[in-house]
Structure formats: structure tokens, C-alpha cells
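Duplicate of earlier report; Putative 4-hydroxy-4-methyl-2-oxoglutarate aldolase input re-posted below.
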Amino acid sequence: MHHLGVVHRSVDRADPAAVEALSRFGVATVHEAMGRLGLMRPYIRPVYEGAKLCGTAVTVLLQPGDNWMLHVAAEQVREGDVVVAGCTTESEDGFFGELLATSLRARGARGLVIDGGCRDVDDLRRMDFPVFSRAVNAKGTVKATLGSVNVPVVVANALVNPGDVIVADADGVVVVPAARAAEVAEASARREAAEEGKRERFRAGELGLDMYGMRGPLAELGLTYVD
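Output:
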């Protein structure tokens, strides 16, 4: 059990080559390749169309209505990191906006995933600073209560450890444990190659019923066709 008010400075980040490899794949592919694990709940959405990111997690545990720890976390960000923020209880306040985005970008951050609210959406779109959040909310926050930085956090039902790989796009957010990054990237590549073969067959008009050998099992269950 970790305590509030702790900042861990040393993080075992996933191998940069593996992060780069994972960045070429979409969230759905990575999730399937990992054995259908790691997805955040679908209420975490990009705050503007076209937002996507891939990077290593700097984790933050926030208190509701308080964004102090996001400022503390900024100091721990390195090039290629994604700030991933959970909250001690549900909160949709606007923890994050254009000023913090400017600060994080200067540190080399690839974006933010937050189980909370975000504001200044037009500015974030203009900056192309990707944010995935549970809400868009103009309501501001205070700086009064300690949370923690670089501790394990649960964000939208997904466990995130510092240094894990975060991949996010229009389909959602997936967390790849740092130790599995290279293996999941390879599995994602194999999956995409197999899908390309299927895509060609579908394009040619072949049916999934035949490609996947579904007719027999459907008949066994009693599916009947009536003219």
C-alpha cells in the first residue's frame, strides 16, 4: 500500500524501440494482440477529433477537485512520456487545460490521459496536444491536497504502473505493461498481417460465413433458412 504525498523519481520505462514499434498500431489491434487485456473503460474519450498518442506512463494520483499533483508530475516528465492521472474518487472537474499542456509539452510529454475533466479544448486542438479524459468541464480546481506521483494507479478500471506503455486513439486507451511491450508489438504486427489477408478476401466478396467455416456450427445449432 502506498501513501499519499510520495513522488517516485526513478521509473523503469519500457524500451524506447518497443514503444516506437507499438506506436504504429491502433488500440484495438494492441488490445487483441495482448490477449484482450489492458483497456480503459470506454468513457475515456479524446477531447478533440484526431487525437492519438503513444508513450510511457508518468502516473499521478489526484484528489477530487485538486490539480496540484499535475504540477508536481510535470517535473518528472521526460521526452516521450504520457501523463496518466487517476483520482482517489470520481471527479469530473476541469483538472487540466492549455497552460498545463504548454508546461507538459515543454518537458517532452506526448499527451495526457485523465480519469477526470479537461478544459480549453479549442486551445488543445490548436496545439495538437492529445488529451483523453472522462469529461470536458470548464469548472476549475484548487491546489490544496497531496496526492502522489509515479505510484501504481487504477485509471478507468485499468491498472497503470509507471513506465508502462499507453496507446490511445479514437477507439479508446490501452495499457501495455512495460515488460510486455516488445512481445505485444510483435503480436500486433502478426495480427495486422493476418488481417490484411482477410481484408483482401472480403474485398473480393468472400463471406465471413465461408472464410471462418461458420456454416457447419450454425447448422448444428439448428439455424434454418426459409425462402
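Helices lie at 16-22, 27-33, 68-74, 98-106, 121-127, 181-203, 208-211, 215-220.

Merging into the original ticket.
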